[in-house]
Amino acid sequence: MTLWDDPVKGDLQEEYHYLARHESKGYAIRWLVKQWVRLSGRTLGCIIYRSWDMLNSYVKTAVRNFCRHRSYTLINIIGLTIGLVACFLIASFVQDDLSFDQFNQDKDRVYRIYCETTHSGQPFVMALTMLPLAPAITEELPEVEACARISIASNVPFAINHKIFRERIYFVDQPIMDILTFSLKFGDAETALSQPNGLILTAAQSLRFFGDENPLGKSIELDRGKHYVVTGVFEPWPGNSHLPPAAMASLNSLLDNPHQRWNDWTSFGNDYTYVKLTAGTQLSSMEDKLALLHTRHVKSDEIGDDRLRLQALTDIHFSNFNYDMVRTSGRQRLLIFSMIGFFILLIAVFNFINLTTARIALRSKEVGIRKVSGAQRMQLLRQFLVESLSLSAMAGGLALLISIVLLPPFGSLLRRALSSTAILNPALMGLAVALILVVGLLAGLYPALKLSGIKPITSLKKLETGRHRFVSMKTVLVILQFVISITLIVATFTIQRQRNYMMDRPLGFNPHQTISIILNSTPFHGRTEALKAAALALPGVESVAFSHSVPGSGISTASTYTKEGSDEEYYLFGVLSDGNMVETMGFTLLQGRTLREHSQSDAEDAILINESAAKLLGWTDPINRIVVAEEKCYRVVGLVKDAHFESMRYSIEPMLFRISTRVNFMMLRIDPAQVQAISKEMESAWKAIIPGDYPLRLFFFDQAFERYYRSEKRMAEVFTVCAALAVLLSCLGMVALAAFVVNQRLKEMGIRKVLGASTGGLLLNLCVQFIKWVMAASVLAVPLSYWGMERFLQQYPYRTSVPWWLLAMAVGLAICACMVSVLGQTWRAARIQPAQILKSE
Amino acid sequence: MQQITSQEETLLLGVLALGDNAYGMTIRRHVSKVTGKDWSIGAIYDPLYRLERRDLVSSFLADPTAERGGRSKRMFRVTELGKAALQNHRAVRDRLWESVPGTAWTK
Fold first, then answer.
1. Which domains does chain B have, with CATH numbers?
2. What is the pLDDT of residues A222-255, one digit of tens each?
3. Beta-carbon separation of A35 and B40 below 8 A
4. Regions of chain A with pLDDT less than 50
5. In 10 A of CB A39, how many CB atoms?
6. Is residue A637 within 8 Å of A609, Cβ to Cβ?
7. Which of B32, B41, B48 is the mutation pick for testing A, counting most A CBs within 10 A?
8. Chain B residues whose C-beta sits inside 8 Å of any chain A C-beta
9. Given A38, A370, A826, B68, which is the most exposed site by the fewest CB atoms within 10 A?
10. Are the beta carbons of B72 and A7 separated by less than 8 Å?
């Protein structure tokens, strides 16, 4: 009994009309849908039951066919498996990326506040907020259910039993426990962070610090002798979070810290504000209220273009804000990955279609016999679909197994912990099944339609079975495969080239001639002179400087300046140092003089600016010009050549160099040949001067800059793998296609040979056909990839180009790959003995 | 004598009660009304087809009507074998009921 049985259909219709008359139309429709659902399972079972015998026969023919053409089946399955593996791996990465912060219970209501503003006329978005914002929101906005700040400190020394661990720590307000989803292993989530000096650890930290014992109530000495009491331990989050798990301490522990600007509404520190809105609050009206609150507390001339806005929790991972707390991912990368996965799958599907259609000539006789024996077109169609579906199912099963094995190494390639079981989640399994079905049906449909449409008379009478009919489709698919392959090769080379370009481009100083020591969060105050004397006493050390930031560390201080006598504001980054920085780093001085270390007047108001700053301010001769900040005048005494402080993904910022005692780094200009000896000597000097168990932390510039380009490196690695896969798949298809084409032209070759063609001539004749396809693909791929890569490079202010020889190399590679894959078959055809081929005619 | 289940008994009695007008929709309505629960279409046709295979009911296609979109009804009729099965089923039940002592019902 199925839904298609006439009496059932009649019943449904009659009852529908009855109900529509007596009840209502809506009720009748609902009833109908309900009946359909109730009957669908029974219907499906019936169809399978009824067609079981036929299905059995299809599967049997399919298996026989696979066994008869083993190499063809193998190539087909391998090709599809590779395509599906690539697809599954990429899908599990994409799924992992999309899962960020999804585990939070109230994720739809949780937002982070960020600040939108303009700097020097450019829009500027930063993730930071001011400290007094959160208390004001809690007080004045009833739509906000909870509001909390997170303030981040990294490399904080945790002293436990005289051992020092360096950890990242978040200083947070108690409501964060309500905003984000925590589950506490020990302690009470309601109060853990409400008191000053409360600290909750991650389960991993608790294990590392205290072993298996319950750490509640234990005391930990943090930075500068402050004691915190462990009030909780939280379980690892059940999913990815934009916040890497780390210890959390109550923010009110820092209330006695004079550096914190608790009531300063105009200063942005390393603080982030999160809110949970009450259910049903409109986002736009909330932002308006936030703007109103902002104007209540800050004078309008101080607000300027600043605007506080809300960002959904689940968007944080994909945003690209300035001063964000962690490296975020970006949707662009996700899109690129998905596209690559799609294209590789496309190549595999094209292979599948080509291989199956290529064999039409071989199977036309079978189709003819079947038709003569009474097979209907639908039955043939079904038979071929069952065949392609069973192939794709085999490939799919194999691909799943391989993906499970390959997932952990693939994850480590992308620096993401992907466990083998990640692929077994319902969404991905659903995708896998859908992919297998769609690929099987789509790839099988075209050949099935073609095959089932063969006229028995033509196939059985050995008339030419439409050899030319299929050529166009096949050629198009092969050309498309090579377009994708060539584009991926060009992309791989370009990304690699861009990375090399950034690594090799002069930084504006010699990264090997200067090393740096991280002083931050060690008791170095008052001991800088001793450190300097000790360093200068070492052979090979030429000069020493102290500074707040160094190249590769980023610059964290920036303010607005005006030119003297003008109101126009300029945003300049300040590099604070003791005055010796320019010499020690080896920056080039273009005009004027450097800062003098012990000069009182220089410490007051002398500054150096770099070229970018001079350009921004519009000065060609900046010496003795004045800039003003907070009613204080600074005199430019020198112009420094631009040097990179940050990744070359960003342009060099306009900078000024100023004397200050706020320092984090000690820099040594050294003889590069003696770096080993110096760092060893320095270590013992450090031990002698700095009390406590603080190890010497060296900072090498070349390493710091290399770290900047890791994501390019990763991307290049992924592209290399993908391009190799694409080429491999295209070649696999080419091999099978060559076998087919050669088979068809075997007789022609025999005749040519009889008429006196040489082996070499025949080889050339055959190969030209394949090379023509690749050349046609190049005509499409070269402009396409050139345009795409030029666009990709636009995001880098310092970028390489896509030279013609790179494009030529990619085309050459594709031709080589094509030649290698067809050579075996063409060689066989060219060496043919004409007598063997022609004897049967 | 063929054994029938109580579901089959319900359906056979329904078909009997409807006389010459027993087909999918009327049987479903009647049975649903009497038992007070909504019978699905599958729960009507599947057992009836099963009964037909056992020759307890017979069926034929009636002429198509307009209100069914030109589709014919499958009319059911209980065969003599079916009636005998029903009688037997009832007799068994009666005997079973009688064998229960009256005291078994007191609480």
1. 6-99 (1.10.10.10)
2. 866 788 889 989 888 888 888 888 899 998 888 8
3. yes
4. 465-466, 468
5. 20
6. no
7. B41
8. 23-25, 28, 40-42, 45-46, 49, 61, 64, 67-69, 71-74
9. A38
10. yes
